[in-house]
Amino acid sequence: MKNEADIKIAVYPGSFDPVTKGHLDILERASSMFDKVIIAVLKNNSKKSYLPTADRVELIRQSIEEIGINNVEVDSFDGLTIDYARKTGAKFLIRGLRAVSDFEYEMQLSQTNQAIAPEIGTVFLITKPKYNFISSGIVKELSSFGEDVSKFVPKSVVEYLQKNKK
Q: Which of 7, 40, 71, 144 could form an S-S bond across to 13 if both were Cys, CB 3.0 to 4.6 Å?
């Protein structure tokens, strides 16, 4: 058994508004690389969210149960991701990349984080090609027009969106 100092903890931050199969693809792979992954839902009070934070957290929990990952915790936070990572003892941030266009922004964010907190690294994971085009924004738009989004999001999210038509 590892002692607490040897446990590799990573934080996978994001809005997850809503969580998609692409997010879960990244989460599954991250969970195989780290002892513990905390999927951290950002509460951004200056931005209007599609789903309430508590619902996003619960949908992620249900989605994790659906795919059977057991070394993942779900939490929410506000403020800087780096501060949250420090608070949880994480030494790594997980960031998912879908396309080259994501890389420039993510690289800048990673370098800023590195300047602020050199003890915390960033691990970039590229989604499987079948998820490259999926984004929470696309899911929200399709869902708002009554389209079936079951190809893009886990079952729990589909059910939630059907019950809570926006």
A: 40
Q: Is the distance from CB of 136 to CB of 145 less than 8 angstroms?
A: no
Indicate if 43 belongs to the active site: no
Identify whether 18 is preceded by a cis peptide bond (ω within 30 of 0). yes
Q: Is 86 a catalytic residue?
A: no
Single-letter amino acid, residue 32: S
Report the Cα 136 to chain-centroid distance in Å.
Answer: 11
Q: Which of 23, 63, 143, 156 is catalytic?
A: 23
**pLDDT by residue (tens digit) across 57-112?**
999 999 999 888 899 999 999 999 999 999 999 999 999 998 888 888 899 999 99
Please name which of 161, 130, 157 lies closest in space to residue 25, comparing C-alpha atoms: 130
